[in-house]
Structure formats: C-alpha cells, structure tokens
Design goal:
287 residues; alpha/beta; Rossmann fold; 49% helix
Length: 287
C-alpha cells in the first residue's frame, strides 16, 4: 500500500472513537474549522449518535469500530481508558495499515504500552488536550473547548515527521497549542498538576464525611479544593489510577502536610512565615 502524503493525514477522513466531552468537542471544532472534512463518529450510546446526526456533525455515525473505519486516514481515540483494550482489538481488524493513530486520553505511558503490544507497527502520536470540565458527555461539548489550551504531544516509535505535523495541525486548527514531550514526562507532570488535586479532593471529602457537622461550614475554599471530585469516576479516577507516578506524588504530598503539622505544633507563628514564602513563590510564577 502506498504511503499517504502529509496532506492526507491533515485533511483526509478523520475518525473519532468516543464522542463524549472531548471527542464531541473535537468533532465540533474540526467541523467549524474545516466544514468539508469527512468525520466518522463512533459511540455506543444511541442518544449521542442521534444528537450527532441531528447536528449533521459527522459524515458517518456508527456504534462501534467496524469496517467503516477503513476509510479513515487519522483515528483519534477519545474513549475512557478502560475501553482502550477492546477498541485496539477492533482497530487491529479494521484500520488501514498506513493510517495515523492518535488519542486524547489523560495518561500516556499506559496508552503507549497498550498500543505497542496490540498494534506494534502502527504510526502512533499520543495527545492530551489540557481542557475539559467536571461535566462530561457529548451534551456538554462545544467547539471552543480547546481554544487557548495546551495539548501535549507524545510521539510513538513509528511516528514520522508527517504524522507529527498532522497531529500538531489538527490541534492547532481547533485553537490549542501543541507542546511535545515524552510520555513519561507527561505522566510525571500531570501526576502533580492534575491527578494530585483530584486525589486531595477525594481525601478531603472522605475526611469531612467523618465529621458531618463540618459540611455546614463549607465555603469557597472547600469548594475550590473539592470541585474536581465531580468528575465522572470512570474517566477521571480510572486515568489517575493508571498513572504510575501518582502513588509517589501522594506520599510526597502527605510528607508536606505532616511537615506543616509539625511546624504549627512547634510554633504556630512559623506558619505565617511559611505561607508568606510560598505565596511569593506562587506570585512569582504569575499565578
């Protein structure tokens, strides 16, 4: 089979597997940016498929990966990570061998490992758009979701320059700005900046539930720390549990909290000095 030209990846038929918040937003944004592009939408939910047809968002709408996907030049998997293994099994049967495979899942090492085992010769370029929201589902997707947001690009071993250009171009077209890094660097980073806040929120809710009267005293601080707990567990908790670096980050966080406890017990006034130092650091970073 002939090699595809870079333009065929960038503008050829695009298949999106999983039309929830991220997949739906990607389809809407691509349709806005490139109205003539062929989009194949794949989702098991009948109501989601009906909405896609009603909006005329996709050229073809199917319930699962089947022969329809053979037309796709680029495939983006935007499903929950728990479904990835089954999806890759179907892709192995139906995707064309020179197609480009990408994803939008929030961890990269486990995704890359699964793909290497199931589809060892595929051209894979992983991606993770740093956008979303607590309310998932296609009904909450919108075409400007990625505008101004970073998207992490992690190329696999078989990726050629044309594949990287295509994935970067796809995300630039929908308003995101690509940042390339290894799968390991990505997972280490989001363990701290995304997955740790989620785990802290879970822990705080659990602790507060042991003291029911505390819920009568919640304010903005409590809600700011716990709002990520509203994320659908089958998506967020599954991704966090798939990050090999989160246990170590959680233990590091526990050590920091224990240090604050020791500091306050020793001399409560020391917390003021510590808070000032940390605040200066925070403000110096432009936050």
């Amino acid at each position: 089979m002939k090699r595809l030209r870079p333009s065929e990846f960038r503008h050829g038929p695009l298949a999106i597997v999983g039309m929830g918040l991220i997949g739906g937003a990607l389809a809407k944004a691509v349709r806005t940016a490139d109205p003539d592009r062929e989009i194949i939408a794949i989702d098991p939910d009948p109501s989601t498929r009906a909405a896609i047809r009603r909006l005329r968002l996709a050229t073809k709408v199917v319930s699962g990966v089947d022969g329809t996907i053979e037309a796709a030049r680029t495939i983006v998997v935007a499903s929950p990570i728990a479904a990835l293994g089954a999806i890759l099994g179907r892709l192995a049967q139906h995707m064309r061998p020179d197609a480009l495979l990408s994803d939008a899942i929030g961890v990269k090492l486990q995704v890359a490992s699964l793909i290497a085992r199931r589809l060892p010769s595929v051209a894979y370029v992983g991606a993770h758009p740093m956008a979303g929201g607590a309310r998932g589902g296609f009904e909450n997707s919108r075409d400007d979701l990625f505008r101004g947001s970073p998207v992490i690009i992690s190329p696999g071993p078989n990726a050629r320059p044309a594949h990287l250009q295509a994935v970067r171009g796809l995300w630039r077209a929908v308003g995101a700005y690509p940042i390339q890094m290894s799968a390991e660097d990505h997972d280490r980073g989001v363990a701290l900046t995304s997955h740790l806040p989620y785990a802290v929120g879970l822990s705080l809710i659990r602790l507060a539930a042991e003291r029911p009267a505390a819920f009568r005293l919640t304010g903005p601080s409590f809600h700011d720390v716990t709002k990520r707990v509203d994320f659908e567990p089958k998506i967020m908790a599954a991704v966090v549990a798939s990050n090999p670096f989160i246990p170590d980050v959680l233990r590091q966080m526990a050590a920091k909290i224990l240090r604050l406890a020791d500091l306050i017990e020793r001399n409560p006034a020391d917390l003021l000095a510590e808070a000032r130092r940390i605040r200066r650091t925070h403000l110096a970073r432009g936050r």
